[in-house]
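The authors assume throughout that readers already know how a fold can be written as discrete tokens. Each protein is reduced to its one-letter sequence and a matching series of backbone shape codes. I therefore recommend that a typical entry be quoted early in the introduction. For illustration, here is how one protein appears when written out as sequence plus structure tokens:
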Amino acid sequence: PSPGVRRAEGKMAAPVSGVSPVLEPGAAPYGNFPNYSRFHPPEGRVSLLPGGLLRSLFPAAARPLLGLDVGCNSGELSVALYRHLLGLQESEGSLDQPAAGKDLNLLCCDIDPVLIERAQQCSPFPASISFANLDIMDSSAREPFLSSYLGRFGRSTFDIGFCMSVTMWIHLNHGDNGLMEFLSFLSSLCKYLLIEPQPWKCYRAAARRLRKLGRNDFDHFRSLAINGDMAERITQILTKDCAMELVCCFGSTSWDRSLLLFKSNGSNYEGRESSEQEQ
């Protein structure tokens, strides 16, 4: 399959006795590491977000709110975000909180079918968190799939999108144009967008790991003109080219990733909304 989205880079766990060996470090050039949450626990991100974020962003919006998590890996962070945003305790699942889906429905996608299967099997909120195998860079696949999901709610856009440590993998595998197209697409589809960009040092580390395994370098790595301070560059793209505004930076994780919240103020998103209301 063509490269899609992934959530990770970092060291991998050593194989466990009696379990299929995990990928060697660097052997997942799209970031589809099977044990990512062991190295960057979800708490490191969600603890930076205020608990009442959804209430403050959507004080009067109709419920349920709709969220899109792109590059969800095996779902641990998706579930942690869902619990945190709705104020649910770690021990609570859909049986304890049957009304959770009335507040927020979350669609989570990743290119790796094995990771998605694991997420589906482990989800404590199967009625309100959907996990789907999808290459977000394949427009012929994403358009009908996302439209179908949104159509179930009579909607054509998401209220909030999450893009957590995914931009580097899009950028390395699809180049500068691919990154810009990806950000443009998300900005047209989501009223708010929470992005955690990987810094440039992670690009160099990912390329180094690939070379260490004797594999070819990422096709686009040496030709990327968008480089340097990636949080700043992505902010520039979203604010100058995608009609979004930076609402807030929620600080940085312990592994040096910024959490940036953007809001759409442009014609793309509003055009979708107005056509939706006319139907």
In short: The two ends are 36 Å apart (CA to CA).
